Amino acid sequence: MSNLSKRHEFLTFICDYNPFYLLSALCMFGACWGFSHALDMQVGDVSKIIWLIGVLTLYEALVIGLAIYLVRRHGLARDALILLLIETVFITDATFLFAECFTIDADAGMWINAVGLLLTVVKLFVLIRLMKLRFNAADLLALGAVLVLLFALPGWLSVKPGDGGALTPKDFYHWSWIIAAIPVLHLLLSSWWRKSVCPDAIDIRFDQRARSFLLYIPFLLLVVRLCELLWVHKVGNDLVYIMPIGLAVVVWLTRLHPAGAPNMVLARWQFALLGLVTVCQFGGPYDLVYDVSWWGEGVVTPFRCAMMGGAAGLLIMFAYLRLISVMIAAAVFITSGLFGATPSVAIENIINLLEALGRNVRKLLPTKPAHWGIVAIVGAFVMLGLGAVVSLARSRILPADEPEDEQTPPSSTVHE
Asked: Up-side HSE of residue 222: CA atoms within 13 Å toward CB?
């Protein structure tokens, strides 16, 4: 009896969690890794890796077809989500087969990656249309931008040294800001383009999870790809190169606020994360200093980029949240970026400015009673005018005051 119960528990576990899909994906990853090391690929010979890409494409087609079949015909949303998760990882070139084409032959790799990007677009089109996922134009543009960068980044890193231009820390810093622009643009465009490509979803919960997989996992893998390249090329102080992406993610979190009523707990977390991201960019290396002749000091540093980027993010947050504290923080960021190339220089310049203003204000203060009398007279008229303005503004906002009821004396009654 115990053996039957254990067997029943095992079968129940298999039916509930169905681990075979994940095991299948791990086997395919292992096959791609093993063959890429065992095929002895030589420079200029891409025929072997094309054969491996063809096998992987056939496997992805079966995964897509099975996911669509399970959710459309049998309503098995969880199994379809597992298959969709596997396919999302594969379409982002997690096996690095397309990226390896550039190391074998740069010219052929460019064409192979172009075909791979086209096949990825076709796969996504089939998934979105047949699964009836509610993607709008902003979602499609963001996902398309992530996929283009995923396929283009390895090629650019391999082609530039071949053209005689060595990779510099600024190259990776530029890519970080380009990647950071994707979630910010997605936030802005989502408020304008709300119409979905497929308005009728199969299941609301399935639709939300499927869209999250296809939108967030490719972007996360793109960030991981950038971190991997930073590690391979031994670029020091990696946090400086990742922080622009962190800044963009903090701004993107604004879309999680309820419409018309900002979540103050989430807003505090955004402020804390924004401060952390900004501080991490203060110690940027000298390699990231830009010589700009039209600027006052002639240089743009990671500190100034962080201040101006943070100010832009705060202004975007203010457009959605309408919090005065956000606007004040944006003014502080702009002021800090304008007054110095480094935190110490900015603080020193601000202190000097405040001291100069204090000296000038003290010169303007009246010293004689007659002068104070003039100031008081002017203040009286100014305050009278401000009171009138406030009263008129109040009359437009609030209803007119109702006149008080006339109190009539109580009638005298004669008690017999």
From this structure: 29
